[in-house]
Design brief:
Order of helices and strands: EEEHHEEEEHEE
Radius of gyration: 15 Å
Shape: globular
């Protein structure tokens, strides 16, 4: 798995109100609820100056590692200097180095499987900003393909 360097970028969307944890399936519920709100309130349509229709799901602000508390954000990439609507949140992703993992299969189980592999891998994780990118390849929930970018130490 080769390393990929990405510059900083801005996302606009929804932020989980409180931190969540993978303990006892808590994050599945919290993140699932945020996705439901994102979909039902048609947030994608309300984001101005989008650079694409791709949706980013970001895990960040880790207190420790995958066993601790973390923050979660869902949104789209926008022009850096665009104004964020008052009812939405923005998140600035810093320049980082990543390892890319591709989740393939039926949703959402293929995502869960990919994360289990990430958690048990020997990647030198930074626990910075990790994110999933949902694009046209992820629309068929029976045969989806999602890129997961994991922040790593260089």
């Amino acid at each position: 798995m080769k390393q990929i360097k990405k510059g900083n970028f801005k996302l606009v969307g929804l932020k989980l109100e409180n931190k969540t944890t993978n303990e006892n399936g808590r994050s599945s519920i919290d993140c699932g609820n945020l996705w439901q709100k994102f979909e039902t309130e048609k947030i994608v349509e309300r984001i101005p100056h989008k650079l694409s229709e791709e949706i980013y799901a970001v895990y960040y602000d880790y207190e420790t590692d995958e066993t601790g508390m973390f923050s979660y954000f869902i949104g789209c990439r926008t022009e850096e200097h665009s104004k964020t609507p008052i009812e939405l949140n923005e998140l600035l992703i810093p320049s980082q180095t990543y390892k890319k993992v591709v989740a393939k299969g039926a949703m959402p189980s293929c995502i869960a499987e990919a994360w289990k592999k990430i958690w048990t891998s020997d990647m030198n994780r930074k626990f910075g900003f990790d994110f999933e990118v949902y694009d046209e390849r992820s629309r068929d929930w029976n045969n989806a393909e999602i890129d997961i970018f994991i922040s790593v130490n260089e």
